[in-house]
Amino acid sequence: MFSAVPMSRLGVAVLERDKRAVLRLLGRLGVLHLVATKAGPDTAPLAPPDRAVELARVDGLLARVDTLCQRFGIETLPEPAGTVPEMTLGQIDGVLRPLEDRAEAILKHQMELRKRWNEVQTELEKMRPFLGLGIPFDQLGGSMFLHFAVGTLPAEKLGELQAAVGPNVILAPQAEQEGEVPLVAVTSRGGREALESALKQAGFVHEAFSAYDGETAKIASESGRAEREQLRADLQEADEEVMALAREATAPLAELRKALRTEQEILRAEQHFPRTEATALITGWSPDEEVPHVRDEIQKFTRGLCFFQVTSPHAIPDSEIPVLLKHPRLLRPFAMLVTGYGLPTYRELEPTLLFAVTYVIMFGMMFGDVGHGAVLVALALYLLFRGKSQEIRDGGLLVLVLGLASMVFGVVYGSYFGIPSLHRFCLWGDPLEIAKEKTLWQLGGPVTLMAIAIGLGIAMMSVGLVLNVINRLRHGDILGALLDKFGIAGAVFYAGFLFVLIKLLGVTMKLEAASGIEWWHIVVLLVLPLVGVFLKEPLHFIIASRAAHGAHEGTFGESLITAGIEAFDTVLGFLSNTVSFVRLAAYSMAHGAVLLATFQIAEQLGPSVVGEGVGFFVILLGNGIAILLEGIVAAVQAVRLEYYEFFGKFFTGKGVAFRPFRFSTRNEV
Prior knowledge:
By secondary structure, this protein is an alpha+beta fold. Helices cover 59% and strands 8% of the residues.
């Protein structure tokens, strides 16, 4: 529960001829995190092979598969049924090329049909205004004595043009369409330049038509419509042919992509392993519980022609050991938030359970309301039962737990959608109300709530200090466990700081005066621990310098400066971190204040029918704002306290994720 899954380092020497087949086996098992190993006397003499050329070729083939999928409109390829047979890159190219050739021919024909359809459609649009023109199109420009101009003119310019042209010009305007007048102008060959000049000044736009031998606009239009209908039928047939080819090609493309992805993973993996002329050394990490199964499978597959070595991680640095965390279903959503900070290293204590408990308590404390919690529960149930992915369903589980926590604290506060008349149904009291009794528990909402918030903060920080000491000892860092600001010296200082603070304030559960502070309290509980924190860096410098025979980076003076900063930061850090938990009470009171203001505004609107209607709307709006904004604030602030005030004491978040060698099951384009 508090540690990563135990790991072992595996070294498997196999024959070079079996290497690719063994990698295929490991890819199917999916339990080995491969590690790149350098060639050397302790491994194998030859460096791992460079597969850059083959990988580039695989990338090119994958790009061709993706291009075909895009041209066919295939967004996701299905997972191939059964095991995809091993194929060489040449064989993959041999399957892919005929598909590309067929697709190119069909799509080219389809494109030509669409181009011609657009051309015919354009011609029909241009001819439509001139359907009443009885002159064949091929005669418009072929007369020896007349000059024809066919086009469109802005409607407001028609009068100016009629006044500008001479008596030798015939204008035949057609019906106006969208502010434009289709126009045919006829003049003699000698009057051509004068007519064209007048047309240009009037904004006339010439229209050019494709040759229709002996056809008038009407006949040409009918011919064009007939051709368009034939093109539409041809296009439909071409589209069906493309879809048929897409359906036919989907399964082969899925197999090709799968084969290429598998080949890509194998080629990348091969670059990890040193070798001899006849063997290769495969190295990686596997969970302890999987090691016997991996060994048996490889030995069975190679018929015993392999050498297997299992190494304990005891003497291996944390930075080289991958981390695998396994959580029960209830903790999985909280693990997502923990990994947002980072993964624990292999020997660090895993904090998900502690995070889950404290996060739920802090959120409920800041967002305590039975009604608001019930809204979260309803949302969570929707996500749990209607969520399409595991991540969404895990998010629903997280919201469900937070909603239940809000309801529990809502009962404690007596808050039911903030309705004032229901406050009396509480286990403790409204955070905004101050009682008259003088014990700390009964002193009143704000004061008691702040005391509880600080008490929770002290408890979390103390647990963090204990966990840091344990982590340091597990890493063999005795000096850090003793003298780190979050080690034993820091813990003693923090305990002494709290002890002295309580003595100075004279606070007990009944506000009775406490005894005074002795001088040895200050020395033992504050001064000596700070001296220990100060000495940590200089001692570390001396030990490291001796171990490195004086070659340690930095100087002794720099270590003293760092030590002074650490000691100063210890004093300020513990104080600020403790006070930071007051925000739990502050946001709890802010949540109550929003609801209190909502009902006061609704009450001020008066007892009229209109006032009651508006007041009800105000109450709904106020509760909606509280649920949305205060819910987000509570969730974010709880995460912030976890990350900075709790995790910062013991959790480095520098772990390396366990990523097993596994062939991807996703086949998206």
